[in-house]
Amino acid sequence: MQRVFSVSMIRAREATAVKAAGPDELMKRAARGVANAVQDVYEAGEVAALVGGGDNGGDALYAAAFLRREGVPAKVVLLSDHPHERALAAAREAGVQIYQPALNSADILPLLTPATVWIDGIVGTGAEGALKEPLASIVTTLENVRLQLPARKVVAVDVPSGLATPDGMVPGGALRADIVVTMGALKPSAVFPPACYHQSEVRLVDLGLELGPHFARVLEAADVREVVAIPSATDHKYSRGVVRLAVGSQKYPGAAVLATLGARGAGAGMIRLVTDEAARALVLAAAPEAVTVDGRVQAVAVGCGLDPQNLEDRSRIATQIFAAKVPLVVDAGAISVAAQLVHSGQAGAQQMVWTPHAGEAAEALSILDESEWTRERVEEAPIKTAMRLAGLSGAVIALKGAATLIVSPRGHVFVQAQAPAWAGTAGSGDVLAGVIAAVLAGVQARVEEEAGSLDWEELARAVAAGVWLHGVAARRAAGFEDADGQAGGVALRPGYGLEGGRPIAASDIARNLPGAFGQALQARKHSAREAL
Ligand SMILES: NC(=O)C1=CN([C@@H]2O[C@H](COP(=O)(O)OP(=O)(O)OC[C@H]3O[C@@H](n4cnc5c(N)ncnc54)[C@H](O)[C@@H]3O)[C@@H](O)[C@H]2O)[C@@H](O)CC1
Ligand SMILES: [K+]
Q1: Which residues hold their Cβ within 5 A of ligand 2, which is an ion?
Q2: Quick one: which residues bind AMP (predicted)?
Q3: What pLDDT shows up at residue 489?
Protein backbone atom coordinates (compact mmCIF):
# COMPACT_ATOMS: atom_id res chain seq x y z
CA MET A 1 0.00 0.00 0.00
CA GLN A 2 1.25 3.43 -0.86
CA ARG A 3 0.02 6.39 1.16
CA VAL A 4 -0.44 9.95 -0.03
CA PHE A 5 -0.21 12.90 2.36
CA SER A 6 -1.14 16.55 2.16
CA VAL A 7 1.61 18.99 1.17
CA SER A 8 1.18 20.92 4.42
CA MET A 9 1.59 17.77 6.53
CA ILE A 10 4.74 16.74 4.66
CA ARG A 11 6.25 20.23 4.98
CA ALA A 12 5.55 20.37 8.71
CA ARG A 13 7.09 16.94 9.37
CA GLU A 14 10.02 17.70 7.07
CA ALA A 15 10.83 20.82 9.07
CA THR A 16 11.00 18.76 12.27
CA ALA A 17 13.15 16.11 10.61
CA VAL A 18 15.54 18.73 9.16
CA LYS A 19 16.10 20.17 12.65
CA ALA A 20 16.88 16.75 14.07
CA ALA A 21 19.17 15.63 11.23
CA GLY A 22 21.34 18.75 11.02
CA PRO A 23 22.01 21.17 8.16
CA ASP A 24 21.57 19.77 4.65
CA GLU A 25 21.63 16.12 5.75
CA LEU A 26 18.16 15.41 4.34
CA MET A 27 18.83 17.61 1.34
CA LYS A 28 21.84 15.46 0.46
CA ARG A 29 19.73 12.33 0.83
CA ALA A 30 17.15 13.88 -1.49
CA ALA A 31 19.90 14.88 -3.92
CA ARG A 32 21.31 11.34 -3.90
CA GLY A 33 17.90 10.09 -5.07
CA VAL A 34 17.81 12.68 -7.84
CA ALA A 35 21.36 11.84 -8.97
CA ASN A 36 20.49 8.12 -9.05
CA ALA A 37 17.44 8.79 -11.24
CA VAL A 38 19.57 10.90 -13.60
CA GLN A 39 22.17 8.12 -13.79
CA ASP A 40 19.39 5.68 -14.75
CA VAL A 41 18.33 7.71 -17.79
CA TYR A 42 21.68 9.31 -18.70
CA GLU A 43 23.40 7.99 -21.82
CA ALA A 44 25.70 10.70 -23.16
CA GLY A 45 26.12 14.45 -23.40
CA GLU A 46 25.63 16.88 -20.54
CA VAL A 47 23.13 17.26 -17.73
CA ALA A 48 21.65 20.69 -16.93
CA ALA A 49 20.11 21.51 -13.56
CA LEU A 50 17.54 24.31 -13.47
CA VAL A 51 17.90 25.83 -10.02
CA GLY A 52 15.42 28.09 -8.22
CA GLY A 53 15.91 30.10 -5.04
CA GLY A 54 14.62 27.63 -2.43
CA ASP A 55 15.50 24.24 -1.01
CA ASN A 56 14.16 22.54 -4.13
CA GLY A 57 17.01 24.24 -5.98
CA GLY A 58 19.30 23.14 -3.13
CA ASP A 59 18.42 19.50 -3.83
CA ALA A 60 19.23 20.05 -7.51
CA LEU A 61 22.58 21.72 -6.72
CA TYR A 62 23.73 18.85 -4.50
CA ALA A 63 22.55 16.39 -7.17
CA ALA A 64 24.67 18.22 -9.77
CA ALA A 65 27.65 18.01 -7.40
CA PHE A 66 27.19 14.24 -6.97
CA LEU A 67 26.87 13.71 -10.72
CA ARG A 68 29.97 15.78 -11.51
CA ARG A 69 32.01 13.76 -9.02
CA GLU A 70 30.71 10.59 -10.72
CA GLY A 71 32.07 11.80 -14.05
CA VAL A 72 28.82 13.14 -15.55
CA PRO A 73 29.29 16.56 -17.19
CA ALA A 74 26.74 18.49 -15.13
CA LYS A 75 26.06 22.21 -15.30
CA VAL A 76 23.80 24.52 -13.33
CA VAL A 77 21.53 27.20 -14.75
CA LEU A 78 20.51 29.55 -11.93
CA LEU A 79 16.99 30.96 -12.20
CA SER A 80 17.24 32.94 -8.97
CA ASP A 81 19.67 35.49 -7.53
CA HIS A 82 19.49 33.84 -4.11
CA PRO A 83 20.23 30.13 -4.60
CA HIS A 84 20.92 27.87 -1.62
CA GLU A 85 24.41 29.01 -0.56
CA ARG A 86 25.98 25.83 0.84
CA ALA A 87 24.58 23.70 -1.98
CA LEU A 88 25.90 26.17 -4.55
CA ALA A 89 29.34 26.06 -2.91
CA ALA A 90 29.25 22.25 -3.00
CA ALA A 91 28.43 22.27 -6.72
CA ARG A 92 31.24 24.76 -7.44
CA GLU A 93 33.71 22.72 -5.45
CA ALA A 94 32.77 19.57 -7.40
CA GLY A 95 33.63 21.39 -10.64
CA VAL A 96 30.09 22.02 -11.87
CA GLN A 97 29.85 24.91 -14.36
CA ILE A 98 27.52 27.60 -13.00
CA TYR A 99 25.57 29.93 -15.30
CA GLN A 100 23.38 32.85 -14.29
CA PRO A 101 21.53 33.97 -17.42
CA ALA A 102 19.05 36.85 -17.60
CA LEU A 103 15.58 35.52 -16.75
CA ASN A 104 14.17 35.17 -20.24
CA SER A 105 13.87 32.22 -22.60
CA ALA A 106 16.20 33.71 -25.21
CA ASP A 107 19.13 33.69 -22.77
CA ILE A 108 18.24 30.43 -21.05
CA LEU A 109 17.47 28.17 -24.01
CA PRO A 110 20.95 28.12 -25.58
CA LEU A 111 22.28 26.79 -22.25
CA LEU A 112 19.69 24.03 -22.12
CA THR A 113 19.21 22.75 -25.66
CA PRO A 114 22.56 20.90 -25.80
CA ALA A 115 21.83 19.00 -22.57
CA THR A 116 20.33 15.50 -22.81
CA VAL A 117 18.91 15.47 -19.27
CA TRP A 118 17.29 18.39 -17.45
CA ILE A 119 16.86 18.46 -13.71
CA ASP A 120 13.83 20.51 -12.71
CA GLY A 121 14.79 22.12 -9.42
CA ILE A 122 12.97 25.40 -9.99
CA VAL A 123 10.41 25.20 -7.17
CA GLY A 124 8.97 22.44 -5.01
CA THR A 125 6.48 22.50 -2.17
CA GLY A 126 7.39 26.09 -1.25
CA ALA A 127 5.50 27.55 -4.22
CA GLU A 128 1.84 28.31 -3.76
CA GLY A 129 -0.42 28.45 -6.79
CA ALA A 130 0.73 28.91 -10.36
CA LEU A 131 4.33 29.86 -11.12
CA LYS A 132 4.85 33.61 -11.23
CA GLU A 133 6.47 35.47 -14.10
CA PRO A 134 9.04 35.30 -15.50
CA LEU A 135 9.31 31.62 -14.43
CA ALA A 136 5.85 30.81 -15.82
CA SER A 137 6.79 31.85 -19.37
CA ILE A 138 10.18 30.18 -19.14
CA VAL A 139 8.63 26.87 -18.08
CA THR A 140 6.04 27.06 -20.88
CA THR A 141 8.80 27.62 -23.45
CA LEU A 142 10.88 24.78 -22.01
CA GLU A 143 7.90 22.43 -22.24
CA ASN A 144 7.43 23.30 -25.92
CA VAL A 145 11.11 22.64 -26.59
CA ARG A 146 10.92 19.35 -24.72
CA LEU A 147 7.99 18.26 -26.88
CA GLN A 148 10.08 18.85 -30.00
CA LEU A 149 13.02 16.86 -28.65
CA PRO A 150 11.44 13.80 -27.05
CA ALA A 151 14.76 12.03 -26.56
CA ARG A 152 15.57 14.53 -23.80
CA LYS A 153 14.76 13.31 -20.31
CA VAL A 154 13.47 15.45 -17.47
CA VAL A 155 14.01 14.48 -13.84
CA ALA A 156 11.95 16.65 -11.49
CA VAL A 157 13.00 17.32 -7.92
CA ASP A 158 10.12 16.53 -5.54
CA VAL A 159 7.33 17.70 -7.90
CA PRO A 160 7.22 19.10 -11.43
CA SER A 161 7.67 22.80 -10.66
CA GLY A 162 4.36 24.56 -10.07
CA LEU A 163 2.40 21.37 -9.33
CA ALA A 164 2.63 21.17 -5.54
CA THR A 165 -1.11 21.83 -5.34
CA PRO A 166 -3.20 20.36 -2.50
CA ASP A 167 -5.54 18.49 -4.85
CA GLY A 168 -3.72 17.64 -8.09
CA MET A 169 -5.00 20.71 -9.91
CA VAL A 170 -2.75 22.28 -12.55
CA PRO A 171 -2.85 26.05 -12.02
CA GLY A 172 -0.58 27.02 -14.94
CA GLY A 173 2.12 25.78 -17.30
CA ALA A 174 4.33 22.90 -16.15
CA LEU A 175 7.35 21.00 -17.36
CA ARG A 176 6.50 17.33 -17.86
CA ALA A 177 8.83 14.91 -16.06
CA ASP A 178 9.94 11.43 -17.05
CA ILE A 179 10.84 10.75 -13.44
CA VAL A 180 9.79 12.66 -10.35
CA VAL A 181 11.99 11.98 -7.35
CA THR A 182 9.76 12.93 -4.47
CA MET A 183 10.96 13.49 -0.92
CA GLY A 184 9.54 12.05 2.28
CA ALA A 185 6.12 10.95 1.03
CA LEU A 186 3.85 10.93 -2.01
CA LYS A 187 2.18 14.29 -2.55
CA PRO A 188 -1.28 14.76 -4.11
CA SER A 189 0.23 15.79 -7.46
CA ALA A 190 1.86 12.34 -7.71
CA VAL A 191 -1.50 10.54 -7.90
CA PHE A 192 -4.36 12.94 -8.60
CA PRO A 193 -5.26 14.08 -12.09
CA PRO A 194 -4.64 16.25 -13.95
CA ALA A 195 -1.25 16.93 -12.24
CA CYS A 196 -0.28 13.26 -12.19
CA TYR A 197 -0.51 13.11 -15.98
CA HIS A 198 2.56 15.37 -16.11
CA GLN A 199 4.84 12.57 -14.94
CA SER A 200 5.63 9.02 -16.08
CA GLU A 201 7.20 7.64 -12.95
CA VAL A 202 7.42 8.72 -9.32
CA ARG A 203 10.22 7.52 -7.05
CA LEU A 204 10.15 8.05 -3.34
CA VAL A 205 13.17 9.01 -1.24
CA ASP A 206 12.59 7.95 2.34
CA LEU A 207 13.50 10.72 4.76
CA GLY A 208 12.23 8.79 7.78
CA LEU A 209 9.44 11.30 8.37
CA GLU A 210 6.92 10.67 11.13
CA LEU A 211 3.68 11.22 9.26
CA GLY A 212 0.12 11.57 10.55
CA PRO A 213 -3.15 10.60 8.85
CA HIS A 214 -2.98 10.02 5.12
CA PHE A 215 -5.10 11.73 2.48
CA ALA A 216 -5.34 8.81 0.07
CA ARG A 217 -4.12 5.27 -0.52
CA VAL A 218 -2.94 3.29 -3.52
CA LEU A 219 -3.53 -0.47 -3.36
CA GLU A 220 -0.77 -2.83 -4.45
CA ALA A 221 -0.96 -6.50 -5.38
CA ALA A 222 -0.60 -7.75 -1.80
CA ASP A 223 -3.45 -5.47 -0.64
CA VAL A 224 -5.71 -6.81 -3.37
CA ARG A 225 -4.91 -10.32 -2.16
CA GLU A 226 -6.32 -9.33 1.24
CA VAL A 227 -9.62 -8.25 -0.31
CA VAL A 228 -10.53 -10.84 -2.96
CA ALA A 229 -12.26 -14.09 -2.05
CA ILE A 230 -10.07 -17.17 -2.32
CA PRO A 231 -12.04 -20.39 -2.13
CA SER A 232 -11.31 -22.90 0.64
CA ALA A 233 -12.12 -26.61 0.71
CA THR A 234 -15.51 -25.96 2.30
CA ASP A 235 -16.56 -23.17 -0.04
CA HIS A 236 -19.18 -23.56 -2.74
CA LYS A 237 -20.66 -21.34 -5.43
CA TYR A 238 -23.01 -19.55 -3.00
CA SER A 239 -20.46 -18.89 -0.29
CA ARG A 240 -17.99 -17.47 -2.83
CA GLY A 241 -20.40 -14.69 -3.75
CA VAL A 242 -23.28 -14.56 -6.20
CA VAL A 243 -23.72 -11.59 -8.51
CA ARG A 244 -26.85 -10.32 -10.20
CA LEU A 245 -26.22 -8.45 -13.41
CA ALA A 246 -29.15 -6.35 -14.60
CA VAL A 247 -27.50 -5.33 -17.84
CA GLY A 248 -27.87 -5.28 -21.62
CA SER A 249 -30.79 -4.42 -23.87
CA GLN A 250 -31.93 -5.08 -27.39
CA LYS A 251 -30.10 -1.90 -28.36
CA TYR A 252 -26.87 -2.76 -26.51
CA PRO A 253 -26.74 -6.54 -26.04
CA GLY A 254 -22.91 -6.69 -26.06
CA ALA A 255 -22.68 -4.80 -22.77
CA ALA A 256 -24.35 -7.76 -21.04
CA VAL A 257 -21.71 -10.11 -22.44
CA LEU A 258 -18.84 -7.89 -21.31
CA ALA A 259 -20.20 -7.33 -17.81
CA THR A 260 -20.71 -11.11 -17.49
CA LEU A 261 -17.16 -11.84 -18.66
CA GLY A 262 -15.89 -9.24 -16.18
CA ALA A 263 -17.70 -10.84 -13.25
CA ARG A 264 -16.66 -14.32 -14.37
CA GLY A 265 -13.00 -13.39 -14.74
CA ALA A 266 -12.93 -11.81 -11.28
CA GLY A 267 -14.00 -15.01 -9.55
CA ALA A 268 -17.77 -14.74 -8.98
CA GLY A 269 -19.19 -17.97 -7.51
CA MET A 270 -22.24 -17.59 -9.72
CA ILE A 271 -23.73 -14.99 -12.06
CA ARG A 272 -27.48 -14.42 -12.23
CA LEU A 273 -28.43 -12.58 -15.36
CA VAL A 274 -31.46 -10.30 -15.66
CA THR A 275 -31.58 -9.12 -19.24
CA ASP A 276 -33.35 -8.77 -22.53
CA GLU A 277 -34.05 -11.89 -24.58
CA ALA A 278 -31.68 -11.01 -27.37
CA ALA A 279 -28.86 -10.27 -24.92
CA ARG A 280 -29.55 -13.49 -23.01
CA ALA A 281 -28.79 -15.67 -26.04
CA LEU A 282 -25.57 -13.79 -26.70
CA VAL A 283 -24.41 -14.04 -23.09
CA LEU A 284 -25.14 -17.76 -22.87
CA ALA A 285 -23.19 -18.34 -26.06
CA ALA A 286 -20.19 -16.49 -24.62
CA ALA A 287 -20.56 -17.61 -20.99
CA PRO A 288 -22.69 -20.74 -20.54
CA GLU A 289 -22.00 -20.54 -16.78
CA ALA A 290 -24.44 -17.62 -16.42
CA VAL A 291 -27.77 -18.49 -14.83
CA THR A 292 -30.96 -16.82 -16.00
CA VAL A 293 -32.99 -17.69 -12.90
CA ASP A 294 -33.05 -14.93 -10.30
CA GLY A 295 -32.55 -15.63 -6.61
CA ARG A 296 -30.38 -14.72 -3.63
CA VAL A 297 -27.29 -12.62 -4.44
CA GLN A 298 -24.52 -10.82 -2.54
CA ALA A 299 -23.98 -7.94 -4.99
CA VAL A 300 -25.74 -6.40 -7.96
CA ALA A 301 -24.57 -4.40 -10.96
CA VAL A 302 -27.06 -2.41 -12.98
CA GLY A 303 -26.81 -0.11 -15.97
CA CYS A 304 -24.33 -1.45 -18.55
CA GLY A 305 -26.10 -1.28 -21.91
CA LEU A 306 -29.34 0.14 -20.48
CA ASP A 307 -30.77 3.32 -21.92
CA PRO A 308 -32.40 5.60 -19.34
CA GLN A 309 -34.42 7.29 -22.13
CA ASN A 310 -36.13 3.96 -22.78
CA LEU A 311 -39.03 3.52 -20.35
CA GLU A 312 -38.61 -0.24 -20.02
CA ASP A 313 -34.89 0.08 -19.28
CA ARG A 314 -35.57 2.89 -16.86
CA SER A 315 -38.01 0.80 -14.91
CA ARG A 316 -35.54 -2.12 -14.79
CA ILE A 317 -32.95 0.26 -13.32
CA ALA A 318 -35.35 1.71 -10.74
CA THR A 319 -36.48 -1.78 -9.70
CA GLN A 320 -32.90 -2.84 -8.96
CA ILE A 321 -32.20 0.35 -7.02
CA PHE A 322 -35.34 -0.01 -4.89
CA ALA A 323 -34.92 -3.74 -4.32
CA ALA A 324 -31.20 -3.94 -3.52
CA LYS A 325 -30.37 -5.11 -0.01
CA VAL A 326 -26.74 -5.82 -0.91
CA PRO A 327 -23.97 -3.64 -2.40
CA LEU A 328 -25.17 -2.25 -5.71
CA VAL A 329 -22.91 -1.11 -8.57
CA VAL A 330 -24.63 1.61 -10.60
CA ASP A 331 -23.00 2.10 -13.98
CA ALA A 332 -23.46 4.07 -17.18
CA GLY A 333 -27.05 5.18 -17.92
CA ALA A 334 -28.24 4.00 -14.49
CA ILE A 335 -26.21 6.73 -12.78
CA SER A 336 -28.49 9.57 -13.84
CA VAL A 337 -31.53 7.55 -12.77
CA ALA A 338 -29.95 6.90 -9.36
CA ALA A 339 -29.12 10.61 -9.05
CA GLN A 340 -32.75 11.53 -9.71
CA LEU A 341 -33.96 8.99 -7.15
CA VAL A 342 -31.50 10.25 -4.53
CA HIS A 343 -32.46 13.84 -5.33
CA SER A 344 -36.14 13.11 -4.77
CA GLY A 345 -35.37 11.20 -1.56
CA GLN A 346 -36.36 7.80 -2.98
CA ALA A 347 -33.01 5.99 -2.85
CA GLY A 348 -29.99 5.88 -0.65
CA ALA A 349 -30.76 3.32 2.06
CA GLN A 350 -28.47 0.65 0.62
CA GLN A 351 -24.77 0.75 -0.13
CA MET A 352 -24.28 1.96 -3.67
CA VAL A 353 -21.18 2.29 -5.82
CA TRP A 354 -21.48 4.67 -8.75
CA THR A 355 -18.94 4.26 -11.53
CA PRO A 356 -19.17 7.40 -13.68
CA HIS A 357 -16.70 8.73 -16.21
CA ALA A 358 -16.27 12.51 -16.20
CA GLY A 359 -19.32 13.15 -18.43
CA GLU A 360 -21.59 10.96 -16.30
CA ALA A 361 -20.27 12.58 -13.12
CA ALA A 362 -21.14 16.01 -14.57
CA GLU A 363 -24.64 14.81 -15.42
CA ALA A 364 -25.19 13.38 -11.91
CA LEU A 365 -23.85 16.54 -10.26
CA SER A 366 -26.08 18.74 -12.40
CA ILE A 367 -29.03 16.82 -10.93
CA LEU A 368 -27.82 16.70 -7.31
CA ASP A 369 -26.01 20.01 -7.02
CA GLU A 370 -28.60 22.14 -8.81
CA SER A 371 -25.83 23.95 -10.68
CA GLU A 372 -24.45 23.45 -14.16
CA TRP A 373 -21.65 20.89 -14.31
CA THR A 374 -19.68 20.06 -17.43
CA ARG A 375 -17.14 17.38 -18.26
CA GLU A 376 -14.44 20.10 -18.34
CA ARG A 377 -15.32 21.27 -14.83
CA VAL A 378 -15.01 17.67 -13.57
CA GLU A 379 -11.68 17.17 -15.33
CA GLU A 380 -10.15 20.33 -13.87
CA ALA A 381 -10.50 19.02 -10.32
CA PRO A 382 -11.44 15.32 -10.32
CA ILE A 383 -10.72 14.59 -6.65
CA LYS A 384 -12.74 17.57 -5.44
CA THR A 385 -15.55 16.52 -7.78
CA ALA A 386 -15.52 12.90 -6.63
CA MET A 387 -15.65 14.01 -3.00
CA ARG A 388 -18.56 16.33 -3.71
CA LEU A 389 -20.45 13.65 -5.60
CA ALA A 390 -19.82 11.09 -2.84
CA GLY A 391 -21.15 13.54 -0.26
CA LEU A 392 -24.27 14.41 -2.24
CA SER A 393 -25.10 10.88 -3.39
CA GLY A 394 -24.25 8.93 -0.26
CA ALA A 395 -22.57 6.42 -2.59
CA VAL A 396 -18.99 5.31 -3.08
CA ILE A 397 -17.85 7.06 -6.24
CA ALA A 398 -15.38 5.46 -8.64
CA LEU A 399 -14.62 8.35 -10.99
CA LYS A 400 -13.07 6.62 -13.99
CA GLY A 401 -10.11 7.90 -15.93
CA ALA A 402 -6.49 7.00 -16.60
CA ALA A 403 -6.24 7.41 -12.84
CA THR A 404 -9.48 6.21 -11.24
CA LEU A 405 -10.47 7.87 -7.96
CA ILE A 406 -12.46 5.90 -5.41
CA VAL A 407 -14.07 8.03 -2.72
CA SER A 408 -16.51 6.99 0.02
CA PRO A 409 -19.12 9.33 1.51
CA ARG A 410 -17.08 9.17 4.74
CA GLY A 411 -13.94 10.50 3.05
CA HIS A 412 -11.96 7.31 2.36
CA VAL A 413 -9.92 7.90 -0.78
CA PHE A 414 -8.15 5.37 -3.01
CA VAL A 415 -6.54 6.03 -6.37
CA GLN A 416 -5.56 3.35 -8.87
CA ALA A 417 -3.79 3.86 -12.18
CA GLN A 418 -2.60 0.44 -13.31
CA ALA A 419 -4.34 0.48 -16.69
CA PRO A 420 -2.42 1.65 -19.75
CA ALA A 421 -4.04 4.20 -22.04
CA TRP A 422 -5.01 1.30 -24.35
CA ALA A 423 -7.72 0.39 -21.82
CA GLY A 424 -9.82 3.41 -22.81
CA THR A 425 -11.88 1.45 -25.31
CA ALA A 426 -15.58 0.67 -25.86
CA GLY A 427 -16.96 -1.81 -23.35
CA SER A 428 -14.04 -1.48 -20.93
CA GLY A 429 -16.43 0.07 -18.38
CA ASP A 430 -18.91 -2.80 -18.73
CA VAL A 431 -16.14 -5.26 -17.86
CA LEU A 432 -15.18 -3.08 -14.88
CA ALA A 433 -18.74 -3.00 -13.52
CA GLY A 434 -18.81 -6.81 -13.64
CA VAL A 435 -15.42 -7.05 -11.93
CA ILE A 436 -16.40 -4.70 -9.11
CA ALA A 437 -19.69 -6.56 -8.56
CA ALA A 438 -17.82 -9.89 -8.35
CA VAL A 439 -15.29 -8.56 -5.82
CA LEU A 440 -18.09 -6.99 -3.76
CA ALA A 441 -20.08 -10.24 -3.80
CA GLY A 442 -17.07 -12.11 -2.41
CA VAL A 443 -16.55 -9.57 0.34
CA GLN A 444 -20.27 -9.41 1.16
CA ALA A 445 -20.52 -13.23 1.30
CA ARG A 446 -17.70 -13.23 3.86
CA VAL A 447 -19.31 -10.61 6.11
CA GLU A 448 -22.71 -12.30 5.83
CA GLU A 449 -21.15 -15.53 7.03
CA GLU A 450 -19.79 -13.67 10.03
CA ALA A 451 -23.23 -12.01 10.46
CA GLY A 452 -21.60 -8.60 10.12
CA SER A 453 -22.03 -5.78 7.65
CA LEU A 454 -19.70 -4.02 5.26
CA ASP A 455 -18.45 -0.63 6.40
CA TRP A 456 -17.66 2.21 4.00
CA GLU A 457 -13.94 1.69 4.29
CA GLU A 458 -14.22 -1.99 3.31
CA LEU A 459 -16.59 -1.13 0.51
CA ALA A 460 -14.30 1.54 -0.96
CA ARG A 461 -11.27 -0.74 -0.60
CA ALA A 462 -13.08 -3.57 -2.40
CA VAL A 463 -13.97 -1.22 -5.25
CA ALA A 464 -10.32 -0.13 -5.45
CA ALA A 465 -9.32 -3.81 -5.60
CA GLY A 466 -11.71 -4.29 -8.52
CA VAL A 467 -10.20 -1.30 -10.31
CA TRP A 468 -6.73 -2.78 -9.69
CA LEU A 469 -7.75 -6.17 -11.19
CA HIS A 470 -9.26 -4.49 -14.26
CA GLY A 471 -6.20 -2.24 -14.70
CA VAL A 472 -3.67 -5.03 -14.31
CA ALA A 473 -5.69 -7.23 -16.69
CA ALA A 474 -5.57 -4.41 -19.25
CA ARG A 475 -1.85 -4.01 -18.62
CA ARG A 476 -1.29 -7.70 -19.27
CA ALA A 477 -3.54 -7.65 -22.34
CA ALA A 478 -1.55 -4.75 -23.78
CA GLY A 479 1.69 -6.68 -23.31
CA PHE A 480 3.02 -5.24 -20.04
CA GLU A 481 3.08 -8.55 -18.24
CA ASP A 482 5.71 -8.05 -15.65
CA ALA A 483 4.34 -5.66 -13.10
CA ASP A 484 1.41 -3.78 -11.63
CA GLY A 485 3.33 -0.55 -11.76
CA GLN A 486 4.49 -0.52 -8.17
CA ALA A 487 7.09 -3.26 -8.00
CA GLY A 488 10.87 -3.39 -8.11
CA GLY A 489 11.69 -0.48 -5.82
CA VAL A 490 9.73 1.96 -7.97
CA ALA A 491 7.15 3.95 -6.04
CA LEU A 492 4.69 4.34 -8.91
CA ARG A 493 4.85 3.55 -12.58
CA PRO A 494 1.26 4.27 -13.58
CA GLY A 495 -0.24 2.88 -16.76
CA TYR A 496 -0.71 6.32 -18.31
CA GLY A 497 3.05 6.84 -18.18
CA LEU A 498 3.87 3.66 -20.09
CA GLU A 499 5.21 3.71 -23.61
CA GLY A 500 4.60 0.95 -26.14
CA GLY A 501 2.18 -1.89 -25.68
CA ARG A 502 -0.49 -2.82 -28.21
CA PRO A 503 -4.18 -2.20 -28.89
CA ILE A 504 -6.66 -4.14 -26.77
CA ALA A 505 -10.42 -4.68 -26.79
CA ALA A 506 -12.68 -4.91 -23.76
CA SER A 507 -12.95 -8.69 -24.13
CA ASP A 508 -9.13 -8.91 -24.03
CA ILE A 509 -9.26 -7.22 -20.62
CA ALA A 510 -11.84 -9.77 -19.46
CA ARG A 511 -9.70 -12.65 -20.75
CA ASN A 512 -6.73 -11.42 -18.73
CA LEU A 513 -8.60 -11.10 -15.44
CA PRO A 514 -7.67 -14.57 -14.12
CA GLY A 515 -4.01 -13.73 -14.81
CA ALA A 516 -4.34 -10.44 -12.93
CA PHE A 517 -6.03 -12.28 -10.08
CA GLY A 518 -3.15 -14.73 -10.01
CA GLN A 519 -0.69 -11.85 -9.95
CA ALA A 520 -2.32 -10.54 -6.78
CA LEU A 521 -2.07 -13.96 -5.13
CA GLN A 522 1.57 -14.32 -6.24
CA ALA A 523 2.49 -11.05 -4.51
CA ARG A 524 1.50 -12.48 -1.19
CA LYS A 525 3.62 -15.59 -1.82
CA HIS A 526 6.68 -13.51 -2.61
CA SER A 527 6.44 -11.49 0.57
CA ALA A 528 5.80 -14.62 2.66
CA ARG A 529 8.93 -16.20 1.19
CA GLU A 530 10.93 -13.05 1.86
CA ALA A 531 9.76 -13.05 5.46
CA LEU A 532 11.17 -16.56 6.04
N1 LIG B 1 15.36 21.61 3.76
C2 LIG B 1 15.66 20.35 3.49
O3 LIG B 1 16.61 19.76 4.02
C4 LIG B 1 14.83 19.61 2.56
C5 LIG B 1 14.18 20.27 1.53
N6 LIG B 1 13.45 19.62 0.62
C7 LIG B 1 13.17 20.31 -0.64
O8 LIG B 1 12.76 21.61 -0.38
C9 LIG B 1 11.64 21.95 -1.13
C10 LIG B 1 10.90 23.01 -0.45
O11 LIG B 1 11.81 24.10 -0.34
P12 LIG B 1 11.37 25.57 -0.02
O13 LIG B 1 10.43 25.58 1.09
O14 LIG B 1 12.62 26.34 0.14
O15 LIG B 1 10.57 26.03 -1.28
P16 LIG B 1 10.84 25.84 -2.84
O17 LIG B 1 12.25 25.64 -3.16
O18 LIG B 1 9.89 24.84 -3.30
O19 LIG B 1 10.34 27.22 -3.40
C20 LIG B 1 10.84 28.42 -2.88
C21 LIG B 1 11.31 29.28 -3.99
O22 LIG B 1 10.28 29.45 -4.94
C23 LIG B 1 9.96 30.82 -5.08
N24 LIG B 1 8.50 30.83 -5.28
C25 LIG B 1 7.53 30.62 -4.38
N26 LIG B 1 6.32 30.66 -4.95
C27 LIG B 1 6.53 30.90 -6.26
C28 LIG B 1 5.69 31.05 -7.38
N29 LIG B 1 4.36 30.97 -7.29
N30 LIG B 1 6.25 31.27 -8.60
C31 LIG B 1 7.58 31.32 -8.72
N32 LIG B 1 8.44 31.20 -7.70
C33 LIG B 1 7.93 30.99 -6.49
C34 LIG B 1 10.44 31.48 -3.84
O35 LIG B 1 10.74 32.81 -4.10
C36 LIG B 1 11.68 30.67 -3.54
O37 LIG B 1 12.76 31.09 -4.31
C38 LIG B 1 10.92 20.64 -1.31
O39 LIG B 1 10.08 20.66 -2.43
C40 LIG B 1 12.08 19.69 -1.47
O41 LIG B 1 12.52 19.65 -2.81
C42 LIG B 1 13.51 18.18 0.63
O43 LIG B 1 14.59 17.82 -0.09
C44 LIG B 1 13.62 17.62 2.01
C45 LIG B 1 14.76 18.17 2.73
K1 LIG C 1 10.74 20.91 -8.96
Answers
A1: 56, 120, 124, 156-157, 161
A2: 400-404, 429
A3: 59
* Ligand sitting nearest the alpha carbon of 63: 1
User: Given this model, what pLDDT does residue 483 score?
Assistant: 66
Whole-structure pTM value: 0.96
The alpha carbon of 122 and the centre of ligand 1 are apart by a number of angstroms equal to 8
Task: Kindly list the distances between the CA atom of residue 427 and the CA atoms of 248, 328, 430, in Å, as whole numbers in the listed order.
Answer: 12, 19, 5
Q: How many Cβ atoms are within 10 Å of 74's Cβ, its own excluded?
A: 30
| Mutation choice for ligand 1 from 11, 32, 81, 123, CB with most ligand atoms inside 8 A | 123
Report the alpha-carbon distance of residue 261 to residue 252 in Å, rounded.
Answer: 15
Give the whole-angstrom CA distance, residue 65 versus residue 60.
9
pLDDT number for residue 486: 67
Q: Please say whether the dihedral angle defined by the alpha carbons of residues 182, 187, 191 and 195, taken in this order, is positive or negative.
A: negative
Among the bound ligands, name the one nearest to the CA of residue 119: 2
- Under 8 Å between Cβ of 75 and 64: yes
> pLDDT per residue over 464-487, tens digit each?
999 999 999 999 999 997 667 765
Residue 530 has pLDDT above 50, yes or no: no
Dihedral Cα 265, 268, 270, 273, nearest 10 deg: -70
* Cα–Cα distances in angstroms (integers) from residue 62 to residues 35, 48, 485, in the given order: 9, 13, 29
In tens, the pLDDT along 126-156 reads: 998 899 999 999 999 999 999 998 899 999 9
